[in-house]
Write a structure and sequence with these properties.
By secondary structure, the protein is of the alpha/beta class. It is built from 14 helices and 14 strands.
């Protein structure tokens, strides 16, 4: 008998909607904070560990708005005394040449003295210091970072699992890492229930969700791998809830990538995310080091780049992005105002109550009645 494989239906932000609640609350009554370990962040937004949106000064600006910036310890800030020169070169290079220029810039060696210097610069702004490393560099760089004052460690790669085969004598083991450094550890990225559950069982403090949805990421085009963010978030959030029921320990889920508007932020939270990680919206801020361009940290891979520089322009300040006043009507500014309004409509007083909102399949949600907006009439 011939057996046929059946495709599972999955959903992205454009295919779903949030159903209004049976009660409503005033938006100003809602609490949008979330917690990593014992560290509380005022709004559920983390900045991607991209050099165009992560610098010591940018971390301070994010902190002033109640958000959390994450700086990549393997980026230009840990390679150059004047990283802004490298960022400007990438931003100004013709598009046809930018990949080779990035490969050259990121081939400069990492410097431990600069890692310590950048972390101290972030701490000097009064910000919580969150830094990102790849699994391959975690054992070497993590103790240096924590000793220098890092408050949160993010171990991040395109796809992360708790079980990984390699040719190394001893690969990265998260329980071992937890003994090495006494700070909250976030791990990503993953997109499935089983992987999320196994990562949580290692004892880490948070899981990042998303493979390939970012505006500057080409992983899906290059490798064909990825799951749309609504389904990915729901699956990982179900693992979080089951893990909490089993152990009593709550591990926050952070949806990473593909979020540009207030509606997408709200859908991510309603799908089960405790926070989101964004990059390109931050790159459009006046405070961003990239000055209107953005690129992913897999973009300069020496053999298989999985990203590109995108020209996103400068649209406004971080304050406008998070709190308004909005100068546009497309939902790309005042993200927290949109989240609070949505929470009010579904009757959620905090992020965890927002997880109880009903998310429905709605393929016409962006087109129904929008003929004039779409230029069809």
């Amino acid at each position: 008998m011939v057996k046929f494989r059946e495709l599972r239906r999955t959903y992205g932000f454009d295919e779903v909607a949030i159903s209004p609640g049976v009660i409503t609350v005033n938006p100003e009554m809602t609490d949008t904070s979330f917690t990593v370990g014992e560290i509380s962040i005022n709004i559920p937004i983390m900045g991607s560990a991209m050099d165009a949106v992560a610098s010591p000064s940018f971390a301070g600006a994010m902190h002033q708005q109640g958000a959390l910036s994450v700086m990549n310890l393997e980026g230009v800030h840990s390679r150059y005394d004047n990283p802004q020169e490298a960022i400007d070169e990438i931003a100004q290079t013709p598009k046809a040449e930018v990949t080779s220029v990035m490969q050259k810039i990121y081939s400069s060696p990492l410097r431990e003295d600069l890692i310590e210097k950048r972390i101290k610069e972030i701490k000097a702004t009064g910000s919580v210091c969150a830094v990102s490393v790849t699994p391959a560099a975690t054992k070497k760089l993590s103790p240096l970072a924590v000793e220098a004052g890092a408050d949160i460690l993010v171990v991040q790669s395109t796809v992360t699992t708790a079980r990984h085969s390699s040719n190394s004598v001893q690969g990265l083991q998260f329980p071992e890492l937890l003994k090495m450094v006494d700070v909250p550890i976030l791990v990503g990225n993953c997109v499935g229930y089983e992987v999320a559950m196994e990562i949580m069982e290692t004892g880490v403090h948070g899981v990042l969700v998303g493979v390939g949805p970012g505006a500057a990421c080409t992983t899906r085009e290059v490798t064909g791998v990825g799951i749309p963010q609504v389904t990915a978030t729901m699956d990982c959030a179900q693992a979080r809830d089951d893990y909490q029921n089993k152990t009593g320990r709550y591990v926050p889920i952070i949806t990473d990538g593909g979020i540009r508007t207030g509606g997408e932020l709200c859908k991510a939270i309603a799908s089960g995310a405790d926070a989101v990680m964004i990059g390109t919206p931050l790159a459009q801020s006046t405070e961003a080091p990239g000055k209107g361009v953005n690129w992913g940290m897999a973009s300069p891979h020496p053999a298989l780049p999985r990203g590109t520089r995108v020209d996103v322009g400068t649209k406004g300040s971080l304050e406008q992005l998070f709190y308004g006043p909005s100068s546009v009507s497309d939902g790309t500014q005042n993200l927290i105002g949109a989240l609070k309004a949505c929470m009010g409509m579904v009757g959620a007083l905090n992020i965890q109550e927002m997880h109880e909102a009903e998310v429905i399949v709605a393929p016409s949600i962006k087109t129904e009645g929008k003929h004039y907006q779409l230029g069809l009439s």
